Known about the structure:
Elements: H1 10-20, H2 29-42, E1 46-52, E2 56-63, E3 69-71, H3 77-80, E4 87-89, H4 102-105, E5 112-119, E6 125-133, H5 141-206, H6 210-218, E7 223-227, E8 233-236, H7 238-244, H8 248-251, H9 256-260, H10 266-279, E9 288-294, E10 300-312, E11 315-324, H11 326-348, E12 352-357, E13 362-365, H12 368-373, H13 377-380, H14 385-388, H15 391-405, E14 410-418, E15 421-433, E16 439-448, H16 450-464, H17 474-491, E17 494-502, H18 505-512, H19 514-531, E18 537-542, E19 545-553, H20 556-572, E20 576-577, E21 580-581, E22 586-593, H21 601-617, E23 622-630
Helix pairs in contact: 2-5, 5-6, 5-11, 18-19, 19-20
Amino acid sequence: MHKPRLPANEHDRLAALQRLGVLDTPPAAELDRLTRLAQRVFKVKTALVTLVDAHRQWFKSRVGLDVSETARDISFCGHAILQPQALLVTDARKDPRFADNPLVTAAPHIVFYAGQPIFSRDGHALGTLCLIDDQPRQLDDGERQTLQDLARMVEQYLWGLEAAQDLQQLQAELEQRVQQRTQELETTLAQLHQEIAQRNAYESALLAEKEHFHATLENTTDAFIEIDEQGLVVGWNRAAETTFGWTREEAGGQLLAELIIPPPLRAAHHAGLCRFVRTGQPRMLGQRVEVSACRKDGSTFPIELTLSAIHSQGRMLINAFLHDISQRKADEAEILDSRARIKMITDNVPAIIAYVDTGLHYRFVNLGYEKWFGWKAETITGSKVADVLDAAVYAVARPHFDKVLRGEQSEYEVLMPSLHGKIWVHITLIPHYNPQRQQQGFYVLGVDITERKQLQDQLQFEAYHDSLTGLPNRRALMQSLREAMARSRRSGNSMALLFLDLDGFKALNDSHGHDFGDMALQRFARELRGAVRETDSAARLAGDEFTVILENLVQPQQDSALVAGKLLQQIAAIHSIAGVAVTLSSSIGIALYDGRHDSSANTLLNAADKAMYQAKRAGKNGFAFYGDGTA
Length: 631
């Protein structure tokens, strides 16, 4: 037995698997539907979604197997994740890698294995979608593609989990940064309020004790500058020295504009000073304003400025408190940049993302809402969800809103009208709490699963229909036949099963080739569909064998004979196919069922089959009833 080797990226692969947080979690209904579908489509005993952990392979979804995990060193999936394409083992008993594997020599006696790797968004092989049977078999190209398509659907489910986790992590980081910056700004603001209160107290005391005021100004953390009516510096504290780089001796007696006003603003400063001297009414007196200043080295920076004016010794003085707000501005810019980055990320995620408060109002929506539905963020932000969503969509969503508002994560699928037609959306609702564990609202993550739904519908159709003629296949026939017989027993109305075989089909195939034979079968199927009522059901069993179920027959023998005769006439009216002259006929067996006794669908089908052979023996191109007509 060959133990699977470890991938080169094993460490990163295991890290990606652990980040999913999906190991040892309850089964997921979406994946269980896929494994059941895979089991039916491929007609195997077992279908699994496996995740390959460090020392085990664990089954997130399983059908046809009781155990939830096996050791990795005996696993087939450990080999499958080493290659990008599906691993196909047609007969493990003859494969030297697995012939003596305990999973082959003992239960579950694996003979056939097909495992399609499933990958994370960053390309790490997490496990497989695999098929297991105890009989050898092959997969053709179409079946391989179907297995790959189903595996891609498993990946979409896992990627949705990754996207939701990424969103939660981004939100947590954003909240932490916003909280930290907000706390810093609140601390700074509190300091500013305290300092302004101190300044007001200093200004009141200045008139009585100027020297004491100056001593106080020397110890303040803000720069204090005092100028006269000509704009010359008469006061310059130590904080001003530190802030602007000029010593008290260098600044004293100099024009303030030449020291701290950037050159482009000096003309406006001079005009404002002149206006104040002339009118005594400066525009900025008593207000806190943000302006640009410059240092001795010529560098500019933002400051918060508060002005006041006093009269002392017969002259007017203008006092200015200046606070360097460079760090605060940098913090504000960083917060705005962080918000812009988060918005850019959410706007470019191939999903719709929103935040809804506890009152069910939209507080944030990403660009996906406009791309999918034409709803601009500025239009629906603040609106009630019920006023935005289609009534039918809201009716589906409302129970899940109630659930998430109780603190539980919820998921659902809904068909929504969009700019490009109706689309299926998988919605995940995640509750949001503040640090005090009070619920503030919830996040909405929506992923377009329309393609996945269409693939499921296609697979469902293909499972019950014949690919050549489009008619229901044997599986669909047996289901329809059982249902029709049940209706007959309930209502007491008779029904009939017609078994049709195309006469001389083998000779037709041999003479003109299989492609022509396929065209003949397709033409036969069209005539069959056109000859029966809408309430009747036609199907193709296999090869050149077809059936028709007739229900609610008032005169069963006469009514079924009438339909059989009509079919024979329409088939005989076919004289050419694709320009080739042909003569077609059919032998039809009829079995009646009156609903008065128990009988199985297989019994009725066998009876109609025997009647068909009776018609063959009678010379073909005719119909015959089974026995006395009743099966």
